[in-house]
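Board notes (copied after class):
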Amino acid sequence: MQPIYIPQLTKAPEQTWKLTVDEYLPDLETLTPAQGQLQVTHQGNYLEVKAKAEAIMTLTCDRCLQQYNHRLTVNTSELIWLQEPIDEEDLPLEREVSLDELVETLDPQSHFQPDAWLYEQFCLIIPQRQLCDRNCPGIEVQDNPQQTSSPGSEQKRDRRWSSLEALRSNLPN
């Protein structure tokens, strides 16, 4: 996707630029290309960006470590304020920041990068807890045949656990 020159948006019909997305995004490893629609509208002192897109990504289950495919669906909008850049040389090293200042801003004479913005939106919806199934049992642990005891045979134990085993035997049940 090509960057959009912000002043050029004011000359577009209805000051809106519509893009059909059908490509792989850089740095986002997906099985399918991101597909959907992206719309950028110049609203005077801010940009209104809307997107509906989806892609399929391979994730690894946190419980069983199996890989599975997950559909990522972006359906979002964001307001990006247009503001002249602040000369950072005049700012103190530390300053108080209010909640009103925690907004995305762009220079009104710069470019909007639709692929970078869409990449960020996809990254925000990647699940933090990745489970292949809600009832995933996790990794099955099998007893080591060398550590199982049979009648009349002595169980082999790791000697490093002997101190802990001694402490455990002294505790009341």
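Comment from the instructor: The longest helix spans residues 114-125. The longest strand covers residues 67-82.
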